Amino acid sequence: MIIETQPIHALKNAPYNPRVTLQPGDERWERLQRSLDEFQLVQPIVWNRQTGHVVSGHQRLAVLKHQGVEQIECVVVDLPLEREKALNVTLNNAEVGSSWDTSRLIDLVSELQDLPEMDATLTGFDDQQLRDLVLSPNETESIAGEEDFDSDPSKMRVILEIPEEEWETVETDLDSLLSLHPEIRLHLLHK
Question: How many folded domains does the chain comprise?
Answer without folding.
Answer: 3
